[in-house]
Each structure stands twice: as C-alpha cells, then as structure tokens.
Amino acid sequence: MRRRPARTFHLAALLLALSTASRAQAPDSLLMVRYRTAEQLLRSGQYQQALPLLESLYRERPDVYVFYDRLKQVYENLKRYDDALRLIESRLDARAPNPALLAEKGRLLYLKGDEAGAEAAWEAAIQAAPQQSGTYRVVYQTLLELRRFDEAIRVLERARRTLANPSVFLLDLAYLYSLDGRYEEAMESYREFLQQDARRLGFVQTRLEPFMDEAAAREAGIAVFERAVRREPLNPAFRQMLAWLYLRNGDYDRALDVYRALDRLQQAQGQLLLQFALQARDAGALDAARAALEDILRQSGASVLPEAHYELGLLYEQQAHDGDTTAARLARHMYRDFLTAFPGHPLVPDALYRLARLELDVLYHPQAADSLLAVLLDRYADHEVAWQARFDQGRLALQAGDLSAARLAFLRLLDARRTGPLAEAARYQLALLDFYDGAFEAALAQLDILVEDAASDVANDALTLRLLIQENRGPDSLDTPLRRYAQARLLMAQNQPEAALDSLNVLQQDVGAHPIADDVTLLRARLLRRLGRPTEALALLLEFPLRYPRSPLRDQSLYEAARIQEEDLRDHAAALDTYTRLLTEFPGSPLIPEVRTRIRNLRGEDA
C-alpha cells in the first residue's frame, strides 16, 4: 500500500520523460507497454520475471530515472547487491559526487554485509557537501532506516558542530535519543527546543507520548525539567512541561504544586487550577482535585469561583455515591452555597437538579428532593435538565407508594421524548411498575422493545429483568414466588430496606428449590450491605457459588463480595483473592474488564 503513490509518481515521470523525448520522434509506445507489464509483475511479487524487462528498458533509456530506480529495487529484492551497486556507480560523477547516491551506496553495502565499505560511503557522502544540512539529513535518514541509531546520532551531532547552528536537527536528535533509550539527552534536546520556541509545547508532548509508558523516560524528563525550572523559574513552558510529566507519572500532588505556581505566574485567576482539578478528578486523584478546588475558593477574586464551587460539589457527590456520608453532607453544603452565592449562573439548573438527586438517592430525604425538583420545574421548565427532573418526580411518586402517579409521570415523559436515553429509562420504569404489579406479560412487552437496541443505556437491565421473569414463572398459575419477589423489589425501590429484607427472608424459607432462590439470596445480600451489615452480606455472597452451582449469577456474587471486602471492610488482600478467584473460575464473564481494572488499582499499577 505504501508504494502506490511512488508508482503513480514514477508513471507520471516516465510519461513526462518520454513525451519530452518524443518531440523530435514518434512516442515510443512500446516502452510504455513494457514498463506497465513490468509494474504488474512487481505488484504481484514476480521480481525475477520483471527483471529482464527493466534491464532492457534501462539499456535503451538510461536517462529515465524511473527505469533506473525500479531496476535497482528489483536487484535489491533479489539480493543482487553487486548489480545494484554497479548501477549506482554508473551514475556517480567523481568530479561532482552526489551525497544521496553515496548514502544509497552505503545502504546497499551494509545490506550486502560490507559494514566497513558502508561507513566509507557514508563518510564520502558527508565530505561531498559538508556545509549543507541536507547532506547530513540524507545520511542520517539512511542510518535510521537501517536502525543504526548510534551512528545516526553521531552524524547529527557532527552536523551541529560543523554547521555551528544551535537549532539545527534538535528534534531529530531528540527523537533518535528516545529511540536509543538515551532519555535524559532526549529531554535535554526537547528542553533546548522549547527554550527557542515555547509555542511548540503541545507538539513536544505529542512527540514524547509514545515513550511515556517507559518509567525511565518519565523520570529522565522530570529530572531535566526540574533543573530547568530551578534555573528559569519564570519560564512557563518549562513549568507546563514539568506538570505534564508529573501527571504522566501519576504524581498529582507535585503536579498540583506546579499548577499553583503557574496559576500565579500567568495570573490565571484559578483557571489553570480548575483545569488541573478536572484532570485529577477524571483520573481518580480526588484528594489532589479537592485541594486544587479549595485553593480556588480561597481566592476571592478568582474568575472561576462559581465553577470551583460546583465542581467541588460534584466531587463530594461522587464520593457520596460510594457510601461516604460525610462527603454527602459536604456536597449538599457546596451546592447550597453555590445556589446562594451565584443565583444567576448558567449552572444553577444543574446544581438544583444534582442537589435534588443527592437528597433522593444518597441522603434519602424525598420531601427535600420533591421541593427542589418543584423549584427547578417552576423556574427552568424549558431547560434540558427539567426533563430529568420530571423523570425523578415519577421516582418520587413510586417511593411515596403512589404507583398511579408514577406511571402517569413516566407515560407523559415517554410520550414527550419518544426516543433517546431518557425515553428508554421511562419505558424501563414502566416495565418495572408492571413487574411490581404482577403484570408480567405487560412487563415483557415493554422489555422486548428495550432489548432490541443492544447499545441503549438500559438494555442490560432490561435483559436481566426479562430473563428473571421468563425463568421464574410458576409453579402455580399465579406465579406466587415471583410475585412475592417483585413485592420485595418494590419495597426496596420505596426505600424500605428492612421491610424488603424481612419479606425476602420469609420467601427464602418458602421457595425451597424454586429457580428464583438464587435471585432471592443475591437480593438479600444487597439489602444487608445497604443496611450496614456487610459481614453478613459477605458470608451470603462467598457461599453463593457453592450453594447454587448452576446459577448464572455466581460471577456477580463474587464480584459483589470483593466490592464489600474492598470498600466496606477495607481488606484489600481478601478483595484481591476474590477478584482473582472470579478471573479464574469465570474467564468469560462480562465483569472481567472491570475486575481487571480493580485488581490493577488495588496493586497500585497503572490502568
């Protein structure tokens, strides 16, 4: 594929050469026919068959470069290096030596195995025009193609000395140093390049990106740019480069120190700190992100003060969803402060909504959530987030036990939105309402629509619920065990975990060997964890695969057991053992990617 443009060029050059020559004679169409035949043979890898055609073409028209070039390539492909070298010698002029031809001669000698001859040819190439940068470029690129990095580096270092130009070949040298594992010299070259043109910082980072998986490269870069910052503390490009290297090395605390200095140096009024905070948060470095946001809040004149308030609320909210009750209260405090201090900010609807969701899903204050959603819909009825608020009003009605109002809210939302993630979520809630009500056929009808789009956000949940219904009907015509299980799920959705657990405990005793027994046990474990009884939940989950050896939920039970060990009990060694057990016993589980990520995090490895 890479040779196709070259063939196009060769053909165009050939047409030009022949048309120029034919001004005084008829066009030699036979040359073109023979050349095209040779090209077809070359494309199919039939070099031996193409050789006599190209040799005859070159004998007749040695002035046509494309004939020479293709013939040399065929000699090389057939490993007839002496013939290829004679071809080059025939074009060399001793009175005006050509660096490109001499560099090519050296390449062929090297391929032939004559390293001494190759080095002599490359030296002759340099001596042919030692004051021209192009001479060194053609030799070093030849050496680079042969992966002779040390020699290529020496050629470019010699060029810099001979030409007395501090900027020439800086990037080429930096790249070669990196390829050769000489990372400190590479970083020094990039530092020198940035010294000359700080605007190319992004370009330098792009060039370095392929080497950032190497710890030695990161450490060398940090050492070089720490020295550079000490020598030139007012150079922002050096600080930006150092911060980037710290981030790539996973050292968010030291990166934050650099961003603090950059923010002051460039009088960014918190903008650079906010940029860092978002990067750190997305990477899971929540402590560093929080510290950066708190730094902004201490700057009364920061231009991004509202955004810092909002983002800090988001950060605390993220931790709250992981079970941190202190973080939940802090998130509430940040959102309330934001709404009070910046009532006209564009993020106010989002903050109102997030605060409502926090009250509903984390702090379990449905009345506070309902009031906030009412304010949001009253003031910002046309805002996009208002549709999500209407969805949550349906959830609130469900929690309050008003299933008719909940159904009406979801039906209205589905009618208004028709398609998209929110419409699919509303349809799934309607399916759940039918499920809670024991209307299993109606629920299946809704679920069948949802599972048709495998890429939708709720497709997996819909498929799980459909399988639950299909596999657990009977044994009587009323589907009594499934109905009782659905009622327990309703109690759980209505934030009545104790009542749901009591119901499931009785059901577990009654169902015996009914297929729904494994679903009942898994839901009991989840409720125990929610009620702050992780040890009891863990016991149920760890014995689950032995108790239900044919259950398709065995991998899920081990995953949830490991999560309890990791997050609730802080027993990382036990969590690692359980995650590893899941990998070993269920290698085809869809949970495997997430399990591998959690194992890497527990071991402190890069994701």
From TrEMBL:
The keyword Oxidoreductase does not apply. PROSITE patterns: TPR. TPR repeats lie at residues 167-200. Keywords: Repeat, Signal, TPR repeat. Residues 1-26 form the signal peptide. It holds the Pfam family TPR_16. The keyword Signal applies. InterPro entries: CellSynth/LPSAsmb/PSIAsmb, TPR-like_helical_dom_sf, TPR_rpt. This is Tetratricopeptide TPR_4. It comes from Rhodothermus marinus (strain ATCC 43812 / DSM 4252 / R-10).
